[in-house]
Amino acid sequence: MTNGWMVNFEEDASSGIKNQLISVHPSKLIVGFSFGNNGSGKTVFVWPNEVEIAWEKLKGDGIVPRGVMFWNAKLDQMNVFNGTKRENYTLAGGFNEFLKVR
Predict the structure, then answer these.
(1) What's the predicted TM-score (pTM) here?
(2) For a disulfide at 34, which of 39, 43, 65, 76, Cβ 3.0-4.6 Å?
(3) DSSP-assigned states of every residue in 49-91
(4) Residue 18 pLDDT > 90
(5) Bridge partners of residue 21, in order along the sequence
Protein backbone atom coordinates (compact mmCIF):
# COMPACT_ATOMS: atom_id res chain seq x y z
CA MET A 1 0.00 0.00 0.00
CA THR A 2 2.71 2.46 0.92
CA ASN A 3 4.66 1.89 -2.30
CA GLY A 4 1.50 2.27 -4.32
CA TRP A 5 0.20 0.54 -7.39
CA MET A 6 -0.54 1.65 -10.90
CA VAL A 7 -4.22 2.05 -11.70
CA ASN A 8 -4.96 2.01 -15.42
CA PHE A 9 -7.83 4.47 -15.49
CA GLU A 10 -7.27 5.01 -19.21
CA GLU A 11 -8.65 1.52 -19.88
CA ASP A 12 -12.04 3.13 -19.24
CA ALA A 13 -11.91 6.08 -21.59
CA SER A 14 -15.19 7.40 -20.20
CA SER A 15 -13.48 8.06 -16.85
CA GLY A 16 -11.46 10.88 -18.37
CA ILE A 17 -8.69 10.08 -15.86
CA LYS A 18 -5.07 9.40 -16.78
CA ASN A 19 -3.28 6.31 -15.44
CA GLN A 20 -1.69 7.08 -12.09
CA LEU A 21 0.16 5.63 -9.15
CA ILE A 22 -2.13 5.31 -6.12
CA SER A 23 -0.77 4.91 -2.60
CA VAL A 24 -2.31 5.03 0.84
CA HIS A 25 -0.38 6.25 3.88
CA PRO A 26 -0.75 3.72 6.72
CA SER A 27 -2.21 6.41 9.02
CA LYS A 28 -5.17 6.61 6.63
CA LEU A 29 -5.63 2.88 6.07
CA ILE A 30 -8.40 0.97 7.82
CA VAL A 31 -8.51 -2.73 6.98
CA GLY A 32 -12.01 -4.21 6.76
CA PHE A 33 -12.98 -7.73 7.78
CA SER A 34 -16.03 -9.88 7.24
CA PHE A 35 -17.98 -12.46 9.19
CA GLY A 36 -17.15 -15.01 6.55
CA ASN A 37 -18.74 -17.08 3.88
CA ASN A 38 -22.43 -17.75 4.24
CA GLY A 39 -22.31 -19.99 1.19
CA SER A 40 -21.96 -17.15 -1.31
CA GLY A 41 -18.19 -17.57 -1.70
CA LYS A 42 -17.80 -13.78 -1.70
CA THR A 43 -16.15 -13.28 1.69
CA VAL A 44 -13.67 -14.93 4.00
CA PHE A 45 -13.50 -14.97 7.79
CA VAL A 46 -10.19 -14.30 9.55
CA TRP A 47 -9.99 -14.83 13.30
CA PRO A 48 -8.93 -11.70 15.20
CA ASN A 49 -5.92 -13.48 16.71
CA GLU A 50 -4.65 -14.05 13.15
CA VAL A 51 -5.26 -10.36 12.41
CA GLU A 52 -3.22 -9.56 15.53
CA ILE A 53 -0.27 -11.60 14.22
CA ALA A 54 -0.32 -9.63 10.96
CA TRP A 55 -0.80 -6.35 12.87
CA GLU A 56 2.27 -7.02 15.02
CA LYS A 57 4.34 -7.87 11.94
CA LEU A 58 3.30 -4.60 10.31
CA LYS A 59 4.20 -2.71 13.50
CA GLY A 60 7.58 -4.43 13.53
CA ASP A 61 8.12 -3.22 9.97
CA GLY A 62 7.21 0.34 11.00
CA ILE A 63 3.85 0.24 9.21
CA VAL A 64 0.91 0.90 11.51
CA PRO A 65 -2.49 1.15 9.84
CA ARG A 66 -5.08 3.45 11.37
CA GLY A 67 -7.18 0.51 12.45
CA VAL A 68 -9.42 -2.39 11.57
CA MET A 69 -13.16 -2.55 11.07
CA PHE A 70 -15.93 -4.97 10.33
CA TRP A 71 -19.47 -4.75 9.09
CA ASN A 72 -22.01 -4.71 10.40
CA ALA A 73 -22.33 -4.19 14.16
CA LYS A 74 -25.71 -5.92 14.29
CA LEU A 75 -24.17 -9.09 12.84
CA ASP A 76 -21.38 -8.93 15.42
CA GLN A 77 -23.96 -9.26 18.19
CA MET A 78 -25.31 -12.43 16.57
CA ASN A 79 -21.96 -14.24 17.08
CA VAL A 80 -22.16 -16.11 13.76
CA PHE A 81 -18.92 -16.67 11.85
CA ASN A 82 -18.66 -18.71 8.66
CA GLY A 83 -22.25 -19.73 9.30
CA THR A 84 -21.48 -21.19 12.74
CA LYS A 85 -22.74 -19.78 16.04
CA ARG A 86 -19.87 -18.89 18.40
CA GLU A 87 -21.12 -18.17 21.91
CA ASN A 88 -19.82 -15.12 23.73
CA TYR A 89 -17.53 -13.96 20.93
CA THR A 90 -17.54 -10.82 18.83
CA LEU A 91 -15.10 -9.30 16.35
CA ALA A 92 -15.19 -6.07 18.35
CA GLY A 93 -13.96 -7.91 21.44
CA GLY A 94 -11.39 -9.89 19.48
CA PHE A 95 -9.92 -6.83 17.79
CA ASN A 96 -9.88 -4.89 21.05
CA GLU A 97 -7.67 -7.59 22.60
CA PHE A 98 -4.73 -6.15 20.66
CA LEU A 99 -5.88 -2.68 19.62
CA LYS A 100 -6.86 -1.66 23.17
CA VAL A 101 -9.18 1.10 22.00
CA ARG A 102 -11.87 0.67 24.64
Answers:
(1) 0.73
(2) 43
(3) HHHHHHHHHHHHTT---SEEEES-HHHHHHTEETTEE-TT--H
(4) yes
(5) 6
